[in-house]
Write a structure and sequence with these properties.
single chain; 340 residues; Rossmann fold; 434 Repressor (Amino-terminal Domain); 3 domains; 14% strand; alpha/beta; four-stranded parallel beta sheet
Length: 340
């Protein structure tokens, strides 16, 4: 019994009635680039012939011929974070649909590790990068620009670099509106680190929302910590060590909010009877806590998918701009109308 020979670019070209070089360019290009090499009808004919013949692209050989690997590197602070994991899932989905493979690595928000991991990805000849850990002042982005490395941002903004983001300022304003409508008048914020645009924009939007209602957020009502539960616990401990308890706490991350709830409990304060608490990101835990958490939801899967879309446009040298998504407030039992 003879083994059937696998179809080649030449057999696809013969079936489609075009040159082998045209077939190679079309089949080894992303969906947005194919019409650079052939008209829409020819592209369709090539794709149909390849599918009918069962042609399978050889990524190793293709990368040698086209200098494209069809690999995308994704850098996140921590993949264990639900939001970042979901963003990567979105990137991976969109990449796979376009014939790419996505690889993820953790930077732990450490500049040295971040640079090393980026170099490792570039050493694997990725076509481009999706960076989810951008910093407000970011020398790594300047270095990538100088080296003409295609990259986009996701989640965190930095300067005028393009990417896919939620409107974090609006998210902060939504929290302020919610708390003031319920009657809270002395809120505090457990904010994330100053190098993260997400923390800064959520805090800025919250301040704007309070000012629009005639309230001011005092500097001593803001503590800078991190985004995890221990940071939330430490933030509340710092607030309570320097003054009376606020009537509400806005933590710029759900896990920080969970830590904040624990710290309030340790100090004999009940949520929401004594202090209301609001988180951010609507992680799966938020609705499953003993007191379900009021929070802000962003379409993180869509942000990841959009980030790849922007990157693909950059790889095709097409004009591209950032894509923005609208967050929504999800009210739950951790906030309630204040009785005065």
């Amino acid at each position: 019994m003879t083994r059937q020979q696998a179809p080649t670019l030449r057999t696809v070209a013969a079936a489609a009635g075009v040159d082998v070089s045209t077939v190679s360019r079309v089949l080894n290009s992303g969906a947005r680039e194919r019409e650079r090499w052939a008209g829409p009808e020819t592209v369709e004919r090539i794709l149909r012939a390849a599918a009918e013949l069962g042609y399978r692209r050889n990524p190793h050989g293709a990368s040698l011929r086209t200098a494209r690997s069809h690999l995308v590197g994704v850098v996140v602070p921590r993949l264990q974070d639900y939001v970042l994991a979901t963003i990567f899932e979105g990137v991976d989905q969109a990449a796979a649909e376009r014939g790419y493979a996505a690889f993820v690595t953790n930077s732990l928000d450490d500049p040295a590790q971040r640079e090393a991991r980026v170099e490792q990805l570039l050493g694997r000849r990725v076509d481009g990068l999706v960076l989810c850990d951008a910093r407000t002042d970011d020398p790594l982005l300047r270095m990538l620009d100088e080296r003409d490395v295609p990259f986009v941002l996701a989640l965190r903004t930095s300067g005028d670099h393009v990417g896919a983001f939620a409107d974090e300022v609006l998210g902060g304003r939504l929290v302020a509106e919610h708390l003031t409508e319920l009657g809270y008048r002395d809120p505090a914020v457990v904010a994330g680190p100053g190098y993260a645009s997400t923390a800064n924009d959520r805090l800025g939007g919250f301040r704007e929302g309070l000012r629009a209602r005639g309230l001011t957020l005092a500097d001593d009502r803001v503590v800078r910590t991190g985004f995890d539960a221990e940071a939330g616990r430490a933030g509340v401990a710092e607030l309570l060590a320097h003054g009376p308890a606020p009537d509400a706490v806005f933590a710029t991350n759900d896990f920080a909010a969970i830590g904040a709830i624990g710290a309030l409990r340790d100090h004999g304060l009940r949520v929401p009877d004594d202090v209301g608490v609001v988180g951010y990101n609507d992680t799966p835990l938020a609705d499953s806590l003993p007191v379900p958490l009021t929070t802000v939801r962003s379409p993180t899967l869509e942000i990841g998918r959009a980030a790849f879309t922007v990157l693909e446009r950059r790889l095709a040298a097409e004009p591209c701009e950032s894509l923005s998504f609208t967050p929504t407030l999800v009210p739950r039992a951790s906030t309630q109308a204040v009785q005065r």
